[in-house]
Design a protein that fits this description.
Layout lengths: L7 H8 L4 E5 L7 E8 L17 E3 L1 H7 L6 E3 L2 E2 L5 E4 L8 E2 L2 E4 L15 E4 L1 H5 L8 E4 L2 E4 L6 H19 L9 H14 L16
Antiparallel strand pairs: 1-2, 1-3, 2-4, 4-5, 6-8, 6-9, 7-10, 10-11
Helix pairs in contact: 4-5
Length: about 210
């Protein structure tokens, strides 16, 4: 078997297979900022002065390109805390679809005080981020995708809307005929009123209209 001697770019690629890296303070605990962006094949790079590849965070070509105009990247446990630059923030604990709370460039946060947790973020591509119409109001999240979103009408307001038409329905069904209003119909109106007034805070749907 013949050994192949690596020289130049081949030797560098063997030691640094990803080409692009983020350097950070390996002695720091917790979340730490990136201190340098390294292109191992750049003419100005002194390869012998670099940490080992395992002591840096490998970057993809897309990450490298976006990082050139970024203010600050952060590392935690040997990986980028926010691997994507652009995100839609939403409440991951809410039932979906749910609204987009904000649009955020996480590589512009030099101070992460108050920063959203990655679990509440959905990555947005650079192309979509550049499209202002994509980041318009009225957007939501469902099944890992950005969608058009219309907030649901609160159940109390739904009850108020239905209740406003009940007197006319009651007269049409019973009053105009001189009939007694059935107990089921009275109970129906009372249930609607309890929701509309906020006394019923447990119902998630409106009561069904009784059969005539």
């Amino acid at each position: 078997m013949t050994d192949t001697t690596l020289t130049g770019a081949g030797l560098i690629a063997s030691a640094y297979p990803a080409r692009y890296y983020a350097q950070y303070d390996r002695t720091a605990a917790g979340i730490t900022p990136v201190t340098a962006l390294i292109d191992t094949l750049a003419d100005a790079t002194v390869v012998n002065a670099l940490p080992a590849a395992a002591d840096m965070v490998a970057l993809t070509t897309d990450q490298w390109a976006l990082a050139q105009t970024a203010l600050s990247l952060h590392v935690q446990d040997g990986a980028l805390l926010y691997p994507d630059r652009y995100y839609a923030e939403y409440d991951a604990s809410a039932s979906q679809p749910t609204k987009v709370i904000s649009w955020t460039d996480m590589w512009e946060w030099s101070d992460l005080t108050g920063a959203p947790d990655i679990s509440n973020l959905l990555a947005v591509s650079a192309t979509d981020w550049a499209d202002q119409s994509y980041r318009r109001n009225g957007r939501g999240v469902q099944d890992g995708k950005i969608i058009d979103y219309v907030p649901p009408v609160p159940i109390a307001l739904q009850a108020q809307m239905v209740l406003s038409g009940v007197p006319g329905q009651t007269w049409a069904k019973f009053g105009s005929l001189g009939a007694t209003v059935p107990e089921a119909w009275v109970a129906y109106q009372q249930a609607l009123k309890a929701i509309a007034d906020g006394k019923d805070t447990t119902s998630t749907t409106l009561p069904a209209e009784p059969a005539s």
